[in-house]
Amino acid sequence: MPLDPSVTVLVTRTVREGREADYEAWVEGVAAVARRFPGHRGLNLVRPRDASRTYTLVFRFDSSTQLDAWESSPERHAWVARAEELSDAARVQHLTGMEGWFAAPSAGLAPPPRWKMVAVSFGVAFPTMQVLQAVLGPRLTPLPGPARGAVLGLAMVLFMTYVGMPAVTRRLAGWLYPPPR
Q1: Were both Cys, which of 24, 68, 140, 159 would link to 148 (CB 3.0–4.6 Å)?
Q2: SS3 60
Q3: How confident is the model at residue 87 (pLDDT cuts 50, 70, 90)?
Q4: What is the domain partition of the chain in residue ranges?
Q5: Least confident span in 43-52, 56-65, 98-107, 130-139
Q6: Run of H or E residues at 119
Q7: Looking at domain 7-102, does it have CATH number 3.30.70.100?
Q8: SS3 (DSSP) at 174
Q9: Where are the beta strands (DSSP E) in the chain?
Q10: What pairing do the DSSP bridges indicate for beta strands 91-96 and 40-46?
């Protein structure tokens, strides 16, 4: 059976001058439509830094199959056509696995150095594992060691992918992606 990994999609657009409010209203509309599609896990908007008009949308889907259903839908095509009236051509990136944790929040930013990725990942993983051990560990005692490890590992990866890493990387964006000098 082939793997069908979760997918993070980054859509970067430079909005035409004076159309920023229209674009933000468009984002609210497309988000409401996307939420109705199976496997949709959320949409985040990264607003421009400084005087830029470059916005990045971050879509998450449970699987590439579910993303394909969204991307080939007539609803999405209609919304994309509306966005094209408000902005320049989109730059689209599909990311699977952990690489989505450190996707640059706007176009033109270099990825953070690996040592920063390690520091942030460890900073989220270590306390997460401690809490999971304290909360789930006693309940999992009757299970064999590999089963306990699998349950704890799955809980940690789910938390880090959907809660911990998105929150921390958003909060540390200025440190992870400093403005060019």
Answers
A1: 140
A2: strand
A3: very high
A4: 7-102, 114-176
A5: 98-107
A6: helix 114-140
A7: yes
A8: helix
A9: 7-14, 40-46, 54-61, 91-96
A10: unpaired
